[in-house]
Amino acid sequence: MAYRWKNDLTRDDATPEAIYLNRRQWLAGVTGLGLVGATGVRAEEAFEPNPWEDITQYNNFYEFGTGKEDPARYAGQLTTTPWSVTIDGLVDRPGAYDFKDIMAQVTVEERIYRFRCVEAWSMVIPWNGFELSDLLDMAGVQSGAKYVAFETLLRPEEMPGVRYPVIDWPYVEGLRLDEALHPLTIMATGIYGRDIPNQNGAPLRLVVPWKYGFKSIKSVVRITLMEDEPPTSWNKANAREYGFYSNVNPDVDHPRWSQATERRVGGGLFAKRQPTLMFNGYEDEVASLYEGMDLTVDI
Ligand SMILES: Nc1nc2c(c(=O)[nH]1)N[C@H]1C(S)=C(S)[C@@H](COP(=O)(O)O)O[C@H]1N2
Ligand SMILES: [Mo]
């Protein structure tokens, strides 16, 4: 049987008792009774998925504008049927893979992941999706491939944001092949058991939970297997601020702000910032991918 990574965050973690106890702790923290440690991550914040409204109304999808509410406002006009993903480069079976055909061949499962934006906000999101490795298997990765490049749709008539040269469109991203094949790396097609909304990257987007959110490229139309490291949009825009790897790392600050803590979206007016975890809390699963690398240099 194929190895399936087990979720460490499940809805069962938010049992009614745990929520009740943590509400009491939260109140105690606010009123200064001091039951919540200074650096303690409160379980309720860490494990309870954000509500649908947070996840679908506070977005980054610059093709629809740079405001957090622009994607929810404008992405409705994006046509997502029909949709195909071209898989090319160093693969045995290059071609245009129809989204419906892909969905007929993969196993969709729920993955409740922490999601950490480089801007220092975070959410917990219950994605539905399948492992990227399943899709790459369909195309047959050749032995010379070492990297995977991804590209978002570029359709100016449906994307009001692309008339502004915020980045060099289309949005492109990349992973090392071993990162792409890691069982944590998924193509998300849903949230809370519903089809993924356009503003979140319909009909399918990458999710790499141990990396900053900008690596999780939306509305993917092309995947290319390559020998060399592909260019990535934010690295092209500012190489000093955004490296190829972009692993979540509380010890390496962005040149313009600290990455040591984060604000959980929807946490409320008095919510404390919480500590950012190495590899966004997935250190046990992914640290071995970077053995021997200096993560203060290979950012
Ligand atoms: N094509 C594309 N993909 C993108 C972006 C974008 O602007 N365009 N923004 C990225 C950033 S910065 C983040 S934080 C996440 C946001 O995903 P969400 O809106 O589903 O939370 O998408 C990433 N993928
Ligand atoms: Mo982001």
Task: Provide a concise account of the structure shown.
This protein has 299 residues and is an alpha+beta fold. It is built from nine helices and twelve strands.
Question: Topology, please?
Answer:
Blueprint lengths: L15 H15 L12 H5 L4 H6 L12 H5 L9 E6 L5 E4 H7 L3 E8 L4 E11 H8 L7 E6 L19 E5 H5 L4 E6 L2 E2 L9 E3 L12 E7 L6 H5 L23 E4 L9 E2 L7 H4 L13
Parallel strand pairs: 1-10, 4-11
Antiparallel strand pairs: 1-2, 3-4, 4-7, 5-6, 5-10, 7-8, 7-9, 11-12
Explain how this protein is built.
With about 300 residues, this protein is an alpha+beta fold. It contains nine helices and twelve strands. The chain has helices at about 15-30, 45, 50-55, 70-75, 100-105, 130-140, 175-180, 235, 285; strands at about 85-90, 95-100, 110-115, 120-130, 145-150, 170-175, 185-190, 195, 205, 220-225, 260-265, 275. Strand 7 (about 185-190) and strand 8 (about 195) form a beta hairpin. It is globular and about 50 Å long. Mean pLDDT is about 90; it is low at about 1-5 and about 15-45. The chain binds ligand MTE and molybdenum atom (MO).
